[in-house]
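Predict the assembly for these two chains.
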Amino acid sequence: MKNIRLLKDRFLSKAFLTLTILSIFTVVLIGLGLFYKSLPLLHSTSLWNLLSSSEWKPFKETFGFYPFIVGTFWVTGIAIIIALPLSMLTAIYLSEYANIRVRKLVLPLIELLSGIPPVLFGVWGVLVIVPLIQDRIAPYFIEFTTGYSVLAGGIVLAIMIFPLIISILIEVFDNVPQELRDASSALGATQWQTTKKVLLRKSVDGIIASVVLAISRAFGETIAVLMVCGNLAQVPKSVFDSGYPLPALIANNYGEMMSIPMYDSALMFAALLLFVIIFLFNAISRIILFRIEKRTN
Amino acid sequence: MIIQPHISIQNLNVHIGENHILKNINLDIPDKKVTSLIGPSGCGKTTLLKTMNRLLDRQTDVRVEGKVLVDGENIYDPKVEVTHIRKKMGLLSQRPFPLPMNIYDNIAYGQRIHGNNNKKDLDEIVEKHLRGVNLWDEVKDRLKSPATRLSIGQQQRLCLARGLAIEPEIILGDEPTSALDPISTQHIEELFLQLKEKYTIVLVTHILRQARRVSDYIGFVYMGEIIEFGPTEEILLNPKEKLTRDYVKGFLS
């Protein structure tokens, strides 16, 4: 009897290990698959050319990915710049200032926001944000824009990652012991002093983690951004210019015009780029987090 | 017999939600003495302590009625500025909660939030108060390292020094030794005995021996009421109320 019990234990531990390896393996497989599929393109053009050239002429077999890379960063960057301060202040308000009734009312609404399908955000962007930029915002700065721009993409994306950052931040703030706030207020600190010097400082790693998650999500978001960004293969010179982020490129073109030689390979390379960007980004943020933890503990 | 009170609590009632936590409390805390509040868990002694520097304010659904006079000023008067009240009191909680910053900044924190940024001044204050809690020699070479790296006992002394650095008149201790080992406990108790020369100390404790060792007066709290208040010897050895006698006996015999 005892042996069977132990055997079961050993078997299960091996089974779990196998499953874990399998799931990690999937990621490796995807990476390898993308790399393999991009090889033809990498053989015909140098990597540096692919990354730095702005010329995108599939019929002439010239593929420059620079506009798409820049487009991706523009849209993500704008989204974070808009979303981070807003969601920080919202989270601080909800966790530190708002009374319990307000919090109970507002939090579910914010979480509802994250449950809305991306395509609806896209439609909303087309119906509201694009005209708003075209008619109300852009005229102050430039002569003409269609409104389909990286700014529109950034705004729509900001609203999509907003609830994600808020709910993580509130969790982070809730994890800061009440006694720590009390210790600060007992010394005569105002609530804002306590928030700024104790709460935020204690939560630095959580704040960074929330931003990392939000940015990773933003890099990959496809449909909503694709609907409002304009999708022109150009390097945006201002926030009112159209852009063409990598996910939009893949989603728009995969399955069409596949008769063009190298096109398949080029799109797979776009996917590989996105994969590498997200991977590098995560790696860097992990290093930063590790540094911070080492410093504070 | 009771000398001039530093804190005077009058007809204090506290409700949290539906619960009547403190019932008609009347209590005078004598100036420059150690007063212990004793009583079983959940009797309201910690809540009573927190009413003295309005730390209950942040909790939801709290209703405080009555007066708490500190130096004759009712701290629940709507015109009173709460940060000003709290600056008069240093708080020591059950477990040490060093602020997420280095040792030096922990002590300087209170001065800085009240607008003192003079480096030389702060250096002096930090040294003085770290010496005051006998921590200076242990940490003087690592003032810039995170306070969380100290041992629990050192952290608690740090928190005491942090509270003293705002130059309060009163020290509130909420079972400040409950997380500490016997040696660290002894450190803190000795400090209290030194400090009562200059400060009024209110100590919540469930250790009767501690109350006996450090306090001049004892208040016995039971089910949200002050059952008895008097000099330490009287309460511990010759209580008037039956409840007090039962409680004291249960622990001392």
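The first strand of chain B starts at residue 5 and ends at 16. The radius of gyration of chain B is 18 Å.
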